[in-house]
Amino acid sequence: MMEQIHIQRTIDYIEANLKDELDNTTLAKIAGYSEYHFLRLFRKCVRLTPADYIRKRRISEIVRRIGDENRPISDIAFEYGFNSKENFTRAFKNEHRILPTEFKTANCSLRLFQPFSFNITEPHPDISMMYMNKFSLIVYPCDEDLPASFWNKYNAEKRSELLSGGMVVEDYGAMKWNPDKNRLDYYIGICEEFVRGDITGTVKLDVSEGLYAVFDTTPATQHDFVNTIHRTWDWIYNEWLPKSGYRRGNGYEFEVYVEASKKYSERIYVPLEKEKENG
User: Fold this and answer.
1) What's 217's DSSP letter?
2) Nearby residues of 278 by Cβ (< 8 Å), 6 or more positions away
3) Which of 33, 47, 63, 239 has its CA 20 to 30 A from that of 84?
């Protein structure tokens, strides 16, 4: 418990001084530990090194201000310690897999890194059950390490409109664990019935009929939308599903959202099977 208090004190100092130079020696003193012990403990608690945490937080705050202020991106980045436009562009693309200018043009939702806290509020999505008929998706296979990065690329390149021929339609992120390759196979695209455009680079997925749990994420803002989605997925698998009397069924689970709506709430579908009763 005392360790958490000391690390939270350091986090609070970082947050208050994000625009200033921060070094491990100073942070260790604030936490009250040797530098070696501080680095080990910080990584254990936050799951990042102090340098990685500071970089992610600075980029996140710059992104927030890009949308709120009519100023050059390089000016805002300079305030947070990026001494050149090239350095910030490189860091931004490494984090989000698109360029800052592409983000500003697309005005899409990025997965921003929130200030770390040991007190995390549970999401409260609206929950329902429904039986769905079989349908098909035309989708792009994910070619990024993280689905969030692939969504950034998908939105920045306006792939939804490429598939639909310019119509505004729902976008689907479909996923299924691949035991042979020990990875999550992830795809983004639209329903086959709405495809009117270029399908180069896509594949067809058949989504099975059956019972699904449906979760509507709580309304968010552009800047915390992606984090709300991730927290909801964690809650579904760690809290809701183990207590539901169901287990995850076969087939694809998927998330549905209309990027152009800017409502910042999505619908999550998880296939279900009833748990077998013992005895």
Assistant:
1) P
2) none
3) 47
